[in-house]
Design goal:
The structure is a single chain. With 270 residues, this protein is α/β, with parallel strands linked by helices. The chain is 36% helix and 18% strand. Strands 2-1-3-10-4 form a 5-stranded mixed β-sheet, with helices on both faces. It has a 5-stranded mixed β-sheet with strand order 7-6-8-5-9. Helix 2 (50-64) runs antiparallel to helix 10 and helix 3 (75-83) packs parallel to helix 4. The longest helix has 15 residues, at 50-64. The chain is elongated. The model is unreliable at 1-30 and 32-37 (pLDDT under 50).
Length: 270
């Protein structure tokens, strides 16, 4: 399994490679010390975290000497891998429910479960001139393909669908929806021109550097993002240290820069 993760994750620096596919089955062994050295940990992280966590992982390596390898994907698919015994050391979910399920299955340390951020969704188009003024503008027939993350296992897809329904345009656009495996894949679909517009994570839009339109947060349930340590022993301690680093002043500065709202802080207007 460790070899498979090495293939799935980027071998250079601190970042993971291709987004992971979901594992099958329901076996849920308890967290265990893998015996691997604590000089490296593997973090299963929701794909909206890629730009922020890659930066944080490199800073953490410089500060502690511990290398962080990331496996990015949809939170639901990563949860399935953890329940099937994937040797991740930390799970950073884009919602609280998947983290709770990992804890309830005995695969996460309940004492380490903590909220680390609230996410935002935005409208994004490859050509800024095509950006709608508001989410209700997606009813316009010129948006022939609208990309959102798959709501079956991606919290950002759930938020996108909720916003479409709250705005009253879901029935108009349902047949035009195309689904990414996760929110990062959704952004890729729109950026490649295979969708006219996408509803994606603010963090990814900021990292891209282009224009975007914030979706009002009262149109969907809060994207309450939660993490939990999923290993024990030396690697579990290193995972706890990385989780603490995410919530440290240095970590908070990075998260805010990518548009995340921190626990205890108010959402900005928009």
């Amino acid at each position: 399994m460790l070899a498979a993760l090495a293939l799935a994750a980027c071998s250079g620096g601190t970042s993971g490679g291709a987004d992971e596919a979901a594992a099958r089955g329901t076996t849920a062994p308890a967290p265990a010390d893998t015996g691997a050295p604590a000089g490296e940990i593997t973090v299963a992280a929701a794909s909206d975290l890629r730009p922020a966590f890659e930066e944080l992982g490199e800073a953490f390596r410089r500060d502690t000497g511990t290398r962080v390898t990331f496996v990015f994907g949809s939170s639901g698919q990563l949860r399935e891998q953890i329940l099937n015994g994937a040797p991740f050391d930390l799970f950073a979910s884009a919602n609280v429910e998947y983290a709770d399920e990992v804890v309830e299955a005995g695969r996460g340390d309940a004492s380490t479960k903590a909220d680390y951020a609230y996410g935002r969704i935005v409208l994004w188009t490859r050509d800024p001139a095509d950006l709608p003024d508001a989410i209700g503008g997606l009813a316009d027939a010129r948006y022939r393909r609208i990309a959102i993350a798959n709501p079956r296992h991606a919290p950002y897809g759930v938020a996108a669908e909720q916003a479409l329904r709250a705005t009253g345009v879901y029935d108009d656009v349902e047949r035009r929806l195309v689904y990414g495996e996760n929110v990062s894949d959704t952004f890729r679909i729109a950026r490649s021109g295979n969708a006219d517009v996408a509803i994606v994570a603010l963090s990814l839009a900021i990292a891209d550097g282009g224009r975007y339109r914030l979706v009002p947060d009262d149109l969907h349930e809060p994207l309450r993002q939660t993490l939990v340590v999923t290993s024990t022993g030396a690697r579990g301690e290193a995972a706890r240290a990385f989780a603490a680093f995410v919530s440290s002043p240095a970590g908070r500065e990075v998260m805010v820069r990518y548009g995340f709202v921190l626990p205890g802080e108010r959402l900005p207007a928009g």
